[in-house]
Amino acid sequence: MKLFFYNTLTRKIEEFRVKTSKIAKLYTCGPTVYHYAHIGNLRTYIFEDLLRRTLQVFGYKVIHVMNITDVGHLESDEDSGDDKIILSALREKKTPLDIARYYENFFLKDCNSLNLLKPTIICRASEHIEEIQYMIHQLIDKNYAYIIDGNVYFDVARFNNYSQLSRAKLHDLSSNSRVDFDHRKKNQKDFVLWFSNSKFQNQIMRWDSPWGRGFPGWHIECSAMATKYLGEYIDIHCGGVDHIPVHHTNEIAQSDACFNHQCVNFWMHGEFLILDKNKMSKSKNNFLTLTNLKEYGFDPAHYRYLCLGTHYRSQMLFNFESLKMAKSTLESLKNRIIDWKSELKNKNADKSIAGKKKEYLNRFYAALSYDLNIPTILSVLWEFVKDGEISVNDKLSLINEFDLILGLGLTEHIKPELSEYLIQLIKKREELRKQKKWNCSDKIRQEIENSGVMLKDTENGTDWYLKY
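Given the sequence above, the corresponding structure tokens read:
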């Protein structure tokens, strides 16, 4: 079966092809480590995880590179504003390096909590200054970049079809009044490759260069690291839709100019998460973190499940009601899986109608192969969960297959332990039921359920599950 993805570069769903047989080279834009990642950021990483899992299920060896921006990212994507990491360092009275490492570690813990597959390579911008400077040299030698007062700028007028990704007209982009005017630039849309002469004269994170002591621009970091680890041809480059108009547009310009060919085949972007009708934003201080969700009683898996219900190219409206529903639905699924495992132990599993399992698998792969249609996959999952014509054994087998993509840890879920007090109450209730003392047994049932444990009377005795 072939894979088809939406390519932002062409605005079409296209058949996925790789440069090297059965090896998929994937680059994903990582975090700027100046603050906690909010759940809108994490939604993008969940989408990228689904993409990687899909490639692996379809037989590709995935080389996944993700960068850590720990230097050079200003408040605006367009070379203006304050340095994000320096602002955090001043706010928290720490060194920029301490800030970067603290938030990097916290981000990676969030990724682990969400069951995201770890990238093959995680690379820090601050550790690749040599590669960044080498690429800048190449662009200068090829007349795509110019030097003024110790700053190096990419000359967008020299690069044909600069706006092929964003589809914006160059004169429109140059007239953005929100961007600080830089008198050194030939064109205000030209972007910085290296800062030697900036307003951050006391910046701690600076390096020697042929153009002066300074630091790299944000955009050049990704191009230098991507090509170091993945080469001149990259199969898929991912990020959020906010990267399209500037960051990824600039990446295309500098990478393709450096190597004289198109470096990235597919560009894929995840849409925004919307909170109270606004894009979640750290600058506006209207964001939620994974830690916040945990404080409200939700597991990272509940948030992951919520994200699965909206296609990665559609905006996702977040509210706690929808998260509560996702939690309830996921926990209900886990309880069913526990019941199925119990049925297998008790040898109560029945037989499936021939071909049923294959039919569900075919629908699973058809949805997956067409631009990661995960919401449809969830529909198929719940259809077979409720299907009385398919055996428990086949249901568990299908759950295993589906969870390779969903990444919810469904097959690893085990029944939690009850306190000894509750266990004794359940036994006492069973004895009362045998004695047909229904009023007394009902009172005990109410006490047990008030503690969050629901009871289920079966022919093999009383079973229980947690209430969500």
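Residues 320-345 form the longest helix (26 residues). Try to locate this feature in the token string yourself.
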